[in-house]
Write the C-alpha cells for this entry.
Amino acid sequence: MTSTTDDVVPVKRRRDRAAREREILDAAEQIFGDRGYQGTSMDDVAATVGVSKPLIYQYYGSKDGLFLACLSRLRAQLLDAVSDAVLAAPDPEQAMYAGFVAWFAFLDEHPRAWSVLVDEGMLAAGPAAQAADEVRDEFVDLIAMMVRLNLPADRPHDEDEIQIVAQSVSGATERLAVWRTRNGGTPSVEKLATTLQELLWRGLDSLRG
Amino acid sequence: MTSTTDDVVPVKRRRDRAAREREILDAAEQIFGDRGYQGTSMDDVAATVGVSKPLIYQYYGSKDGLFLACLSRLRAQLLDAVSDAVLAAPDPEQAMYAGFVAWFAFLDEHPRAWSVLVDEGMLAAGPAAQAADEVRDEFVDLIAMMVRLNLPADRPHDEDEIQIVAQSVSGATERLAVWRTRNGGTPSVEKLATTLQELLWRGLDSLRG
DNA sequence: GAAAGAACTTACTCCCAGTAAGTTACTCGG
DNA sequence: CCGAGTAACTTACTGGGAGTAAGTTCTTTC
C-alpha cells in the first residue's frame, strides 16, 4: 500500500534508446508507406509515437535520415528473401523462376514495405505522380500494340501476357535510360538497342506459340 | 527628341499571356530538370523569368500544375519520336529496334527533358534517393551474378551486355510490381514469374553464344 | 482620352523542416 | 536513502517555401 507509483496510469513514459528508436522506425515505415515521403510530416510521426519532434531529430538526424533508416531495414529483408530463393534452387532456370516468385511474393505480403521502397515512397503524391503514370501508360499501350500485331491472328492471345510483356519492356527501357545517363552516356544507343532486341525477340517467340 | 519612351531600358515588360506562359514553362522545365521537383521553389522559377510568383499561380494554379504542364509537353515530344520510328519501320523486328533507338536517342539529346520525365524529376534529392539506388544496385548485382554463372566459362563474356540485361530485368520486375499492386493484385505471382521466365530465358540463349 | 480589362505586384498566411536551450526522470556510488 | 550525473525528453522558437487577397499599372478600344 505504501508503494509510490500505483495510482492512475502507471504507463512507462521513458524507454531506453534502442526501444524508442524501434518504435519510431515502425511508425515511420507505416506512415511513409501510407502517405509517401512528401505527404509525411515529422510532426505526424512524432505525434503517432507520442513523443516530441526533437527526439526524432536527435536519433535520426533529419527526415531523410529517418526515411533512409526505414529503407535500410526493408532492403535487407527483401534482398534476403530473394537471395535465399535463388540460392536454394537446383539449377539456373529454376533459380530465375524462384527469384521472380520470391520478389513478387515479398512485395505482395508487405504492401507497405513496397511503397516505401520503390513505388510512392519518394514520389510526389497527387496529380503530378498521376501524370507521370499516364506517360508510362501511353508507352505501354504502344508496346502492347506492337506485340499484338506480331502474334498469329488466328490464335486467341492471352491479354495478361501481353500486358506483362509491355510493362516489362517499358520498365526495362526506363531503367536502362537512367542507368546510361548516370554511367556517363555509355554504352552506345546502338549497343543498348541491339542487346535489348536480342534479349526480347527470341523470348517473344515463346509467346507466339 | 521629345519622344516619351526612349531613354534607358526600353525593355518590353508586359507580354501577352501565351508568350509569358511559354517563358515560364521553359524556365520551369530547365529548373525542374536541374534540381528535381523538391529542389525547385516557385520563387526560383519566378525570379528566373523575372516575374512575380502569383502570376505563375494565376497561369498554372499550383506547383503540381506547373510540373504537369512541363510533363505534358515533353511527353508529346517523346511519344511522337518513338511512334514515328516504330511506324516507319518495314517489319516488326525492325520496328522494335527502331523504337528502342528512338527512345534512347531522344533521352540522350534532351537530358533535361529526361530528368523531368522520369529520373530525378519527382524523386527526393540527396541521400534518400541515393539509398534507393543502392537497393536497386544490390539486385542488379545479384542478377548479373546469375547471368554470369549461366554463361559458358570458356568464352569471354561481354560485361556491357551483362549489365544491360541485369538492369533490364531489375527495371522490368520493379515496374511489374507497381503495376500489379495498382491492378488489385492480379495477375497471380505465378503467372508473372512464368511469363517473365518465358520472355527472358530464350533471349538469354542468344547471349550464351 | 476615358473605360475596361488584362498583366502584373506587394504583402501577407500557414505549414513544415530543423534547432537552441532547458527540464525531468532514471541510476548508481556512497 | 540521497545527491550527482547523465540519458530521455520538452517547450518554444527560426527560416523558408507554397499559396492567396487585394490591389496597381499598362494597353487596347471606342
About this structure: Chain A touches chain B through 92 residues (CB under 8 Å).
